[in-house]
Amino acid sequence: MLSTLITGLVLGGTYALVAMGLTLQYGISRIMNLAYGETLIFAAFAAFLLFTTFGINPILGLVIILPVAFAVGYVIYGVMMQPLVTRSKKSGTLEVDSILATFGLLFVIQGVMLVAFGSNYTSYNYLNVGINVLGANIAANRLLAFALAVIIGATLFYVLTRTRWGTTIRAIAVNPNAAPLVGIDVNRTARFAFALGTMLAASGGVMISMYQTFNASMGVVFTMKALVIVIMGGLGNLMGALVAGLLLGVVETLVATYVDPGLTLAATYLIFLAVLLWKPAGLFGKAAGR
Amino acid sequence: MTVFSRRSVLRAIGLAATLLAGVGTAAVSAQDRTSVKIGYAISKTGANAGGAGITTLPNYQLWVHEVNEAGGLEMPDGSRLPIEVLEYDDRSSSEEVVRAVERLATQDQVDFILVPWGTGFNLAVAPLFDRFGYPQLAVSAVTDKAPEFVQRWKKSFWLLGGGHDYTEALSKILLDQQAAGTINGDVAVISVADGFGIDLITAARQSFADAGLNMVYDVTYPVGTTDFTPMLNEAAASGADTFVAFSYPPDTFALTQQAQVAAFNPKVLYLGVGTGFPVYQANNGDKIEGIMSLGGIDVNNEAVMDYRARHEEFIGQAPDWWGSVITYASLQMLEEAIKRHGLDREAVSAELSTGTFDTVLGETKLEDNQLRQLWFGGQWQNGNFVAVAPSDREGASAPILPKAPWPAQ
């Protein structure tokens, strides 16, 4: 039972890591980024390339990939999202507009990956050794992803709730119209949050590339999973994403072990449904219509 | 002022889900109106792209390249016509593959149509091939219903056997090993809840029961499962000496890694699609020694090994160890049939059905429109995925069992 729990927590750690970036982008920048999974896969390919071609291990690879991802997110927001945000001040249709725009972006990124890397399954072996954690044998690379998720989650949570800068970010999440009144540059902050989200997506991609087979068309899977977790945890709530991700991991593992592996997907959506019925704004979200 | 009213969130999610459901990209190639037009729809994007990009598409490209290098397809009068290719991406969607094949037949009016990748897709387009009178050389389609399909669609040919062929070959190996005292009669099986997995597990349940093997663990898992640790733990706890997974490539890769981490060492380890992929060998190195799967190659067959070398040189990657060579052989059969009867599809189909062809597989002849000279089981031995079943066929190697435990980490 204990080992099942640990396996589940580790699986959930990955889910949480992937979902936290999306919750930043959607919750704070209000960009519903459908190309999120593609960004993640792109980072996975980058890590693969660094590892196989240049022999740079994925952890060091993070040092290269994360700043690049941040810059890319920053540019994408500036070029693609800024006009939408400006326009939506009048029409209030930012969510729908951003969905359509990022839907297009999804194909652009996917197309680039198909041309650059082809459609084959890709994977490499790194840190695939078992580590005994309280009686459960866990792969070191998964453990690393779990640790990273917890560290990133805790750091960001601390920053968001305890620092002035974090308060600024939360202010625009709560009320983007009133934030400028207290001297907050909404645009710059939203842009920063979007770039930060892209960076988190990239870190998730690098982690996933260490132990999972991926190909250029798999981004959607991650977007979907992240979306479920983000909504379950409460939009824009990092702690929510972390808890919901871990919860999902534990439930999937418990169901696979004690009920039937065929029912893991069903269990995921059952919990999703239950959470939405019980707390429509998500586990950590404020009540609906706040 | 609310940032997220429930309505806007629901609307956003609804829109997001609808758009995501339709993900895929279209790619269409241009065509010309000369020579022999050969068209195909293949999954270049989407879920099937990984499989199609290894077993099917590279062989189409290799064959077209080789034929055109030689001046084109030879006609009965000895003249040669170069091949003009029309390629559509079916985006891994069965509606799309049907539409593309219909378009190839009616609008592009190609001379021959090559098959898409996958059992489901081949079944989806079979009625179209039949209606428009095109021969269908279905390669990457494993089905026990081939004899039935041949009756229904006279111009369909099924070249990769049925689920029973593979599971019976496996249970025969297991019985032999049990008789030799190498393993016990308990088998733990997991299977993916999708086309290939369902077909194979259905066949396996019967084959194993017939052979008197005891299935102590038998579960299915959904497509896209990434964490197999619970299943591996249960399988290990079941005490079975044999672990079988009828898995898709990502699952096969994950299982291989996670079995090492869990120090799960069954005496027979049999995995599904992907075991024969070049990337599998590249990633796992020596650790794959002893792992068994479907397919296999007679490494002493020079024609096959020569084909593998040409494939690697032209495509830049080695072919897989199961369906690739059959795909290539099917194209050679088509080439030969065209040489004998020209572009008359009726005559070519009849020739494919009854004729004898010289292919990389050696002398090839279909029985009841099905290829039976197949390898149903193979094992990684010294860096080659060698054929071990059927054991009475010439060129078969003996399986080396029990599989050695994973190297210490």
TrEMBL record, chain A:
Segments crossing the lipid bilayer: 6-27, 34-53, 59-79, 99-119, 139-160, 192-214, 226-251, 258-278
Stored CDD domains: TM_PBP1_LivH_like
UniProt keyword list: Amino-acid transport, Cell membrane, Membrane, Transmembrane, Transmembrane helix, Transport
Name recorded for this polypeptide: Branched-chain amino acid ABC transporter permease
Pfam families to which the protein is assigned, alphabetical: BPD_transp_2
GO BP: amino acid transport
Membrane topology label: Multi-pass membrane protein
PANTHER family to which the protein is assigned, alphabetical: AMINO ACID ABC TRANSPORTER PERMEASE PROTEIN, BRANCHED-CHAIN AMINO ACID TRANSPORT SYSTEM PERMEASE PROTEIN LIVH
Native source organism of the sequence: Devosia sediminis
Family according to the record: Belongs to the binding-protein-dependent transport system permease family. LivHM subfamily.
Coiled-coil ranges per UniProt: none
Compartments reported by the entry: Cell membrane
Gene Ontology molecular-function annotations: transmembrane transporter activity
Cellular component terms per the entry's GO annotation: plasma membrane
TrEMBL record, chain B:
Domain of life: Bacteria
InterPro entries: BCAA_transport, Leu-bd, Peripla_BP_I, TAT_signal
Family of the protein in this entry: Belongs to the leucine-binding protein family.
Boundaries of every Leucine-binding protein domain copy: 35-383
First and last residue of the signal peptide: 1-26
Keywords from the named record: Amino-acid transport, Signal, Transport
Protein name, per record: Amino acid ABC transporter substrate-binding protein
A biological process from GO: amino acid transport
Pfam family, one: Peripla_BP_6
